[in-house]
Each structure stands twice: as C-alpha cells, then as structure tokens.
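SEQUENCE WITH STRUCTURE:
===
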Amino acid sequence: MQTIDIIGYIAGILGLIAWMPQFQTVWFKRLHQGLDLRTCGFVAAAILLWSVYGYLINSWPVMCSNWISGMMVLSIIYRVRQLRRLEHNTGQTTQQSVESYNGYNLTAEEREQMELNGMFK
C-alpha cells in the first residue's frame, strides 16, 4: 500500500468520525431539531459524486470512504424524516413521544403508530 493511499484512508476515517455525533443524536437520542435536510441532501449528493470520481480514477480510499460516509448521511436523512413524520402524525415532539411511550399518556393507537413507524421496539 502506498503512502498516498494511507493518507486517503485516514482522511476517509476522519470524515466518517465527523458524522458519528450527528448519527448518534438522531438514531439513539431521537433528536433532529436544527438539522436541515436540504443540506444533508446536498452533502449526500456530493459524497455520491466523490464515490463515482473514486471509481473512475480507480482509487479505493476515495471510493470506500465516501461510500461509507454516504450510507451514514443517508441513514441520518431517513431517520430525521421518520422522526418528523411521527411528530406530524401524533402532534407531539419526538421528546414528548419518548416520554409518553415510556409509560405515560399514551393510547393503544398512539403506541401502535409509533411502533409501526419504527420509533420504538
């Protein structure tokens, strides 16, 4: 492996690490306020283009790191849309939904809706 490839893999790993806090906030804390989906969409498109570029120049570090980062960004977009749809359907913020689900003020229909939306297991 050449030094230039090692630099590329390190850069890719750092780019992936940069998205981890947002990923954890959206998936595990179920918080999405302040996250602009348009920005995430543009970032995902840019990452996709970088992956294509990596393929065209036959650069595994560029291709792999951008592909993995792209999957993370797309999963963040998916989860934010899911949380916002749930808030729209229940009329509650996600935090209120979490508090309600944990044993308070939740009808059977609301609980079922949340579970169908993949909010809780």
Summary: The longest helix spans residues 60-90.
